[in-house]
Amino acid sequence: MAKRQLAMVMDLNKCIGCQTCTVACKTQWTNRNGREYMYWNNVETQPGAGYPRNWMEAGGGFDADGNLKDGIIPDMVHDYGVPWDYNHDELFGNAEETVLKPNTDPVWGPNWDEDVGEGDFPNSYFFYLPRICNHCSNPGCLAACPREAIFKREQDGIVLVDLDRCQGYRYCIAGCPYKKIYFNPKISKSEKCIFCFPRIERGLPPACAHQCVGRIRFVGFLDDEDSQVYKLVHKYKVALPLRPDFGTQPNVYYVPPVLSPPKFDEEGKPLEGGRIPMEYLEKLFGPEVHKAAETLLSEMEKRKRGEESELMDILIAYSHADMFRLDEN
Ligand code: SF4
Ligand code: SF4
């Protein structure tokens, strides 16, 4: 049990799907040595199959009695997608080759279904869902490991793999319902997001949060009442865990995308409410999403009337420095 818990909040109303976070993570941690296919941070379109494909249906996590549920290990070709290269050498060095093409025949990959979403014009909808390991308080990966190779750091609750203990059995991958732990075939061990702990120890936020163009990511300790993370999660209760029904008690929270464009009737007139169905948001974020939506919309109205709203000021994210509170680690 960790003494303190670091958490991240992501405001989905502001994510533009630019993948800057993904690139920041990939260039720092996963572009080499068997990690090429891994995305410790990915940003997927929802509704959608996501990455790895159909991860929400891949099992793991806990049932209502606290028992670990069976899960699958996603397939490299059909669920993750083998990273491919292009025929640049042939194209630029051979006059007969005129088409740029991948050197494999991919059938799936990250963002394969980007921007597809659901619904019909003019009421189609989608939103971006950035995902990292949730550094869960009750991690399915940890519970599934017979080698006790996965642990939570006492000082901040970051979940790490002890590579000296890991034997590459991959039970952790089946046990994680978010499929955010990966097998590295080059070293035969499991690896995952480390919440950029070397940066955290220097008082810096993880690279994905630091680079986020949309300023959607807040980082801080859940017991630090002055942190914006605390205010979003506990004070205003507008930041919710993803798939709380998986039972792992995630420590990444999301402000749900309730500020979507309106639906239109057959004559093209706007209707009341956002376009993303609340039932879908309830599936992702649990029943608390209704109260969170009410709070967000009423605080937004207050701000429109020119009244004070601490919540809206936090979410607008005027100051990058205020979004991260790590010094007390
Ligand atoms: Fe483990 Fe998955 Fe939770 Fe990360 S998200 S701590 S890999 S169960
Ligand atoms: Fe979304 Fe920020 Fe990542 Fe861009 S950098 S995709 S805005 S989370």
Outline the secondary-structure elements.
Elements: E1 6-11, H1 20-30, E2 42-46, H2 76-80, H3 88-93, E3 127-131, H4 140-144, E4 150-152, E5 159-161, H5 171-175, E6 181-184, E7 189-192, H6 197-200, H7 207-211, E8 217-221, H8 228-235, E9 240-241, E10 252-255, E11 262-264, E12 270-274, H9 278-285, H10 289-304, H11 310-316, H12 320-323
Parallel strand pairs: 1-10
Antiparallel strand pairs: 1-8, 2-3, 4-5, 6-7, 9-10, 11-12
The chain binds iron/sulfur cluster (SF4) (2 copies).
Description:
Helix content is 26%, strand content 15%. By secondary structure, the chain is an alpha+beta fold. The strands form five sheets. Strands 8-1-10-9 form a four-stranded mixed beta sheet. The longest helix is centred in the C-terminal third of the chain and has 16 residues, at 289-304. It is globular and about 60 Å long. Bound molecules: iron/sulfur cluster (2 copies).
- Hetero groups bound? iron/sulfur cluster
Low-confidence stretches: none
**Helical run tally:** 12
Structural class: alpha+beta
Strand order of the largest sheet: 8-1-10-9
Major beta-sheet overview: 4 strands, mixed
Helix content: 25-40%
Strand content: 5-15%
- Strand segment tally: 12
Computed CA radius of gyration, to the nearest angstrom: 21 Å
Average of per-residue pLDDT values: 95
N-to-C order of helices and strands: EHEHHEHEEHEEHHEHEEEEHHHH
Give the CA-CA distance, first to last residue: 16 Å
What would you call the shape? globular
